[in-house]
């Protein structure tokens, strides 16, 4: 049915086409025309294929639409534009628009006043459609119109025109360059009003920079426009407008520095990075802060908040307490990356190589000397930000720079010199010293943070068995407890002393004994002070003293036994007993979590002591917990003993009831504690809970509280949650496994990986994907996890898309994994794909990935991030001997290195394009000289040069083919580079390619390639290869540096290599807005004095100085000689000027207004069509002539009209008629009159012989008669 609707008969098509006939008739009413045009628009798909098959129908349609574009009604013009767009379905149809001179009227529609928005929008849609289908045939007049609209700040179509201009630039940069459009794009990229499209404009500029051929059309002066706001800050006072431009320029520089092309250009340009650093020396504090903020963003550092250290410390104290008791998994989960940073991936971190080059670039221009100047001269706030930035960069530089560069950077000689100098002013020395102290404080703080963050949660305490012994201070601090100096019994009873003790040692022992006596007295006082023994009411207890007593008894057996005897432990444990309704009824707050910390410490103390374990075993604490869990599992409100339901949702959320699972979890850290839980059947009841659906509020606290190091029972509980729990519980369980993996739980590879592989079979896609993400994280970082994954025979991972593909490629890197993938048929299919397309797709995906990562909005500015390289098929394959044999068997290595060597031998792209263009120009000019005369003879016999249109289409296809070949060639080279780099990451792979001298080839490409993306790819690949010792030795010989750590796959050029790497490719500028033969033709005009005066004034409108006076002259001439502004020939010459002259939009609108009454008939169009073809042939012929000969030829060939051979007679007739079509007396008397003829100008269209026959006078004599006599004579002949 659908196919029958789509196909139409020839009769239906012709019937629809006949609707155009009434549109050509000038007598058709306006309303009727609009109705017909709407019908045609709705049925365009019926006859549109006729336009491609039958050229005569296409020509008739275009002529009709050309006539409608001149209509006085805006709605008719709007519908005409819509029809043109609907009919323009191919480049072949669009190629006819310019020969038909329709683009003049499209431009006029595009530049209409704001009262006609629909007309302008439809015209812009035509342009956009044209750009998509055939940007090579786009007329210059349209590009100039888009430029004028883009420059007009208040035009509603400005953004749309600018984006269209940007797309044309990417497709046809030569046309845009010759029209001056690249300058406009650079200007608009720093316009504060266009901030929302700034990214698009700069991406366009970077695309030009990264292409050797396209970079020939962009001038260095255009790029300097982006930096101009920085430079102008020195030359003028800072105003609101200049500051807004400065902010826009700052963002533009950030985006440029995110790309290798922009980074190399700014590093090489004298006004690049240096102009940015010069802003740090401006007196304005606001400007300095913006510059420093930009540095933080460039290096992906979080901007600190001053005067918030105390607040952060207070918040950290409470949050640490909260995490220690495992109060809420949501809080731990939300901060998982800061508590347990992601382990470093074995794959290449691309961000680090970029940051290393960026840091070297700033070091070369003196960034750190400038920052030291700011720090010593500025206020405290600026000094704080500078010091913090320096400390972060100095800290990170140890990992990404070589030892030599790191030493240079870390020394900061200028800062030390100022701090130690007594010749400068004293406050300068003080500020320098303060900066040094702040740098030292930041460095020490980072060390503390890295040592502390790993032990701040209960989960870590349960995983790391020895944390307790490491963190407990055996000598209790007297300042904290207020009870004197604490000692250990082992220290007191130590008799292994030297035989001869000195007097000082005896005095020390006596002091220790005296302190012990005082400590016993203080302990008794603390027991009384806490009131635990004297009363069971916990509201009267002193919990601060209780904490101190628990800490003391933990290291003193005597005090521990006293606490067992005096009921201190009994009453304290009874407080936590569920039956007592004390602990479980306390409202949940941050302060109340201290009770949980006491309970955890108490249980640990009892379980670590044999007597304490017996005490806990005989107490009712565990039995009460079991009863509470049984009530919860049975679903009753109470039991026979009167105990009520404890774990209700309300109590779980509002009280400390949830923390009973934390207490249970602390017991699972000890073997005897686990046995006690089993004997009391608490573990059994927990199993029942996690298998119960709808109780995810209980499952989560259980799994995050247990210890998974010792007992398989807790591991089974977690597996039960993942197998039987709700979707939320399962997702939380997988996230908790991630927490355990990062914290370093024991035997994760043996039990956790198997659990995760089972989750891959889950029907819920979210759960399977979460399990896959964790498997991906742990398997590429742990060989044991990887081996377990392969042995588990994972299911079809391809269904997970890119993530599953990544894991499959990792499996390929082992002999066992390779055999497994061969059996599944995966290997053969992927080998074929990667040989043909995979390597190219790898580069494309990588470009998209990096583009998204380095985007300012999508990349978080917090710390160094890992932008890891995804696995490569051939890189993983080369890690096995069988994989190397496959590469040799298919001769892939020989093929790849042959392509690389050939690319080095090729001449530079710029010189190649230059020689090609030169040879093309020579051949075309020679052929033109031989064929131009023949063309002139045949021009009178054709209406439209169809051969020329066909040639345009052929040239377009050739250009498209050349562009695609160039892109594929560059893409192929980059794909081979990445392939070789990935193969070289393993010793086995590098030994297979070492004979081809890969290091020499890639280093040559990194410093000498004119293609900046290839240069950047070579740098990345060298870093990828630098993990091997033999590669590092080779890099040393060739003058490249690298960090000490082998895991940091970074290389940095030095010496001459660095100069070549940062050297921007030199190309000949081809984007000049200069000599074109058509421009010279346009500037010449032959006519009478009034016509010449009008033409000269229009030409002078491009001068902003004389613009106002010229406008007044034109308006005056319009008032005095209105008939001259009706002449099509003058209109045509004026519009040719618009092709080449850069007028402002208001001036272009003025020109349209002056000639708004001009009407073209078919004969006039035919004359101008033939003339334009002759002009183009003449312009080609004149490319070899001198200026004098060229101008003479232009003047002689310009006015050749069809059907005339005598050039002198042609010029005379042209001057007399001024390009107007003349009619006979009978035609002008009949109605309706021709288009453009009215009672005021009718005599101008009358033939000379009929004029003299009717009036017996020449035109000059007739115009000298009185007005009344002229009117009377006209009435006699019916010409009124």
Write up what this structure looks like.
The chain is an all-alpha fold and 1280 residues long. Helices cover 68% and strands 0% of the residues. The chain has a two-stranded antiparallel sheet with strand order 1-2. Residues 1-6, 308-334, 449-460, 462-503, 856-864, 907-949, 1074-1082 and 1173-1216 have low confidence and may be disordered. The protein has 75 helices and 2 strands. It is elongated and about 145 Å long.
Rg, Cα atoms, Å: 43 Å
Instruction: Tell me how many strands there are.
Output: 2
As a percent range, the share of strand residues is under 5%
Specify the overall morphology. elongated
First CA to last CA: what distance?
Answer: 62 Å
Mean pLDDT: 76
Taking the sheet with the most strands, its summary is: 2 strands, antiparallel
* Helix percentage: 55-70%
The helix-and-strand class reads: mainly alpha
């Amino acid at each position: 049915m659908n196919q029958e609707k789509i196909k139409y008969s020839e009769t239906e098509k012709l019937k629809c086409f006949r609707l155009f006939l009434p549109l050509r008739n000038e007598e058709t009413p306006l309303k009727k025309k609009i109705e017909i045009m709407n019908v045609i628009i709705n049925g365009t798909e019926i006859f549109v294929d006729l336009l491609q098959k039958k050229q005569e129908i296409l020509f008739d349609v275009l002529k009709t639409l050309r006539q409608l574009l001149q209509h006085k009604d805006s709605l008719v013009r709007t519908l005409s534009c819509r029809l043109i767009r609907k009919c323009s379905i191919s480049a072949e149809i669009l190629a006819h628009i310019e020969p038909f001179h329709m683009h003049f009227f499209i431009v006029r529609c595009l530049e209409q006043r704001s009262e006609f928005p629909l007309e302008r929008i439809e015209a812009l849609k035509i342009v956009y459609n044209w750009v998509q289908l055939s940007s090579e045939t786009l007329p210059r007049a349209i590009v100039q119109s888009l430029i004028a609209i883009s420059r007009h700040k208040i035009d509603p179509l400005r953004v749309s025109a600018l984006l269209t201009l940007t797309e044309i630039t990417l497709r046809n940069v030569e046309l845009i360059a010759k029209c001056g459009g690249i300058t406009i794009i650079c200007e608009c990229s720093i316009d504060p009003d266009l901030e929302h499209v700034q990214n698009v404009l700069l991406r366009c500029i970077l695309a030009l920079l990264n292409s050797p051929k396209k970079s020939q059309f962009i001038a260095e002066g255009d790029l300097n426009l982006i930096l101009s706001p920085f430079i102008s800050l020195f030359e003028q006072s800072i105003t609101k407008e200049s500051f807004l431009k400065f902010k826009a320029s700052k963002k533009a520089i950030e985006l440029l520095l995110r790309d290798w092309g922009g980074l190399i250009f700014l590093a090489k340009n004298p006004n690049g990075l240096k102009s940015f650093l010069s802003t740090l020396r401006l007196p304005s504090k606001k400007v300095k802060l913006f510059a420093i903020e930009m540095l933080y963003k460039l290096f992906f550092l979080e901007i600190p908040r001053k005067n918030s250290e105390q607040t952060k410390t207070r918040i950290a104290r409470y949050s640490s307490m909260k995490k220690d008791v495992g109060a809420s998994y949501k809080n731990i989960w939300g901060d998982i990356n800061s508590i347990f940073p992601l382990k470093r991936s074995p794959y290449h971190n691309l961000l680090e190589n970029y940051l290393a080059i960026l840091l070297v670039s700033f070091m070369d221009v003196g960034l750190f000397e400038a920052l030291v100047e700011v720090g010593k001269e500025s206020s405290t706030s600026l000094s704080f930000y500078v010091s913090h930035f320096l400390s972060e960069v100095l800290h990170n530089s140890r990992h990404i720079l070589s030892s030599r560069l790191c030493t240079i950077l870390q020394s900061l000689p200028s800062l030390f010199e100022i701090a130690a100098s007594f010749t400068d002013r004293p406050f300068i020395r003080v500020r320098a010293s303060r900066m040094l102290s702040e740098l030292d404080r930041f460095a020490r703080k980072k060390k503390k943070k890295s040592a502390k963050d790993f032990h701040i949660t209960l989960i870590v305490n349960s995983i790391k068995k020895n944390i307790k012994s490491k963190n407990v201070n055996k000598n209790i601090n007297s300042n904290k407890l207020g009870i004197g100096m604490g000692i250990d019994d082992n220290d007191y009873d130590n008799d292994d002393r030297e035989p001869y003790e000195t007097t000082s040692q005896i005095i020390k022992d006596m002091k220790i004994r005296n302190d012990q006596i005082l400590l016993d007295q203080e302990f008794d006082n603390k027991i009384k002070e806490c009131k635990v023994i004297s009363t069971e009411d916990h509201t009267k207890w002193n919990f601060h003293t209780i904490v101190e007593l628990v800490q003391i008894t933990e290291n003193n057996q005597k005090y521990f036994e006293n606490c067992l005897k005096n009921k201190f432990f009994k009453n304290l444990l009874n407080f936590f007993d569920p039956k007592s309704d004390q602990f479980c009824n306390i409202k949940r707050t941050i302060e109340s979590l201290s009770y949980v910390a006491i309970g955890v410490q108490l249980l640990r103390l009892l379980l670590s002591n044999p007597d304490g374990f017996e005490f806990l075993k005989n107490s009712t604490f565990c039995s009460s917990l079991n009863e509470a869990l049984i009530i919860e599992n049975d679903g009753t409100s109470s039991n026979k003993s009167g105990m009520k339901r404890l774990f209700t949702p309300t109590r779980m959320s509002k009280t400390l009831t949830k923390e009973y699972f934390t207490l249970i979890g602390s017991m699972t850290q000890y073997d005897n504690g686990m046995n006690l839980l089993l004997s009391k059947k608490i573990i059994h009841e927990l199993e029942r809970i996690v298998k119960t659906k709808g109780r995810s509020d209980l499952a989560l606290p259980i799994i995050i509280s247990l210890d998974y190091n010792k007992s398989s029972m807790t591991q089974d509980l977690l597996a039960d949650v993942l197998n039987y729990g709700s979707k939320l519980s399962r997702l939380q369980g997988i996230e908790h496994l991630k927490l355990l993996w990062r914290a370093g739980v024991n035997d994760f590879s043996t039990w956790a990986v198997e659990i995760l592989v089972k989750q891959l079979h889950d029907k819920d896609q979210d759960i399977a994907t979460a399990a896959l993400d964790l498997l991906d994280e742990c398997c590429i970082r742990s060989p044991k996890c990887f081996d377990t994954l392969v042995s588990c025979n994972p299911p079809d991972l391809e269904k997970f898309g890119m993530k599953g593909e990544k894991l499959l490629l990792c499996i390929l890197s082992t002999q066992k994994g390779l055999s497994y993938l061969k059996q599944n048929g995966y290997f053969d299919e992927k080998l074929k794909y990667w040989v043909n397309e995979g390597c190219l797709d790898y580069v494309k995906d990588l470009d998209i990935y990096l583009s998204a990562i380095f985007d300012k909005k999508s990349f978080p500015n917090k710390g160094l991030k890992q932008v890891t390289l995804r696995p490569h098929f051939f890189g993983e394959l080369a890690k096995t001997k069988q994989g190397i044999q496959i590469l040799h068997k298919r001769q892939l290595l020989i093929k790849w290195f042959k392509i690389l060597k050939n690319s080095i031998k090729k001449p530079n792209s710029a010189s190649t394009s230059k020689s090609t263009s030169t040879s093309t120009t020579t051949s075309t000019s020679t052929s033109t000289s031989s064929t131009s005369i023949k063309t002139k003879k045949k021009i009178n016999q054709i209406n439209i040069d169809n051969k020329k249109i066909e040639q345009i289409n052929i040239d377009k296809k050739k250009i498209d083919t050349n562009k695609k070949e160039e892109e594929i060639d560059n893409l192929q080279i980059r794909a081979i580079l990445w392939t070789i780099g990935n193969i070289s990451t393993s010793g086995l792979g590098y030994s297979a390619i070492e004979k081809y001298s890969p290091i020499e080839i890639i280093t040559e490409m990194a410093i000498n390639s004119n293609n900046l993306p290839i240069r950047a790819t070579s740098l990345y690949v060298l870093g990828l290869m630098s993990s091997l010792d033999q590669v590092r030795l080779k890099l040393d010989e060739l003058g490249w540096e690298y960090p000490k750590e082998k895991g940091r796959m970074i290389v940095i050029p030095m010496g001459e290599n660095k100069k070549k790497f940062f050297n921007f490719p030199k190309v000949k500028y081809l984007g000049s807005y200069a000599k074109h033969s058509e421009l010279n033709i346009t500037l010449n005009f032959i006519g009478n004095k009034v016509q010449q005066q009008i033409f000269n004034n229009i030409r002078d409108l491009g001068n902003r100085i004389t613009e106002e006076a010229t406008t007044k002259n034109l308006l005056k001439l319009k008032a005095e000689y209105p008939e001259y502004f009706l002449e099509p020939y003058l209109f045509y010459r004026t519009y040719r000027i618009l092709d080449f002259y850069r007028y402002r939009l208001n001036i272009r609108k003025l020109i349209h207004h002056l000639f708004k009454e001009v009407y073209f008939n078919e004969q006039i169009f035919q004359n101008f069509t033939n003339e334009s073809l002759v002009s183009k042939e003449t312009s080609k012929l004149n490319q070899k002539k001198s200026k004098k000969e060229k101008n003479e030829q232009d003047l002689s060939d310009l006015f050749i009209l069809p059907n005339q051979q005598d050039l002198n007679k042609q010029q005379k007739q042209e001057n007399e008629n001024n390009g107007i079509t003349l009619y006979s007396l009978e035609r002008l008397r009949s109605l309706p009159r021709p288009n453009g003829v009215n009672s005021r100008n009718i005599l101008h269209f009358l033939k000379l012989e009929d004029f003299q026959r009717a009036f017996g006078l020449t035109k000059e004599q007739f115009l000298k008669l009185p007005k009344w006599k002229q009117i009377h004579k006209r009435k006699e002949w019916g010409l009124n």
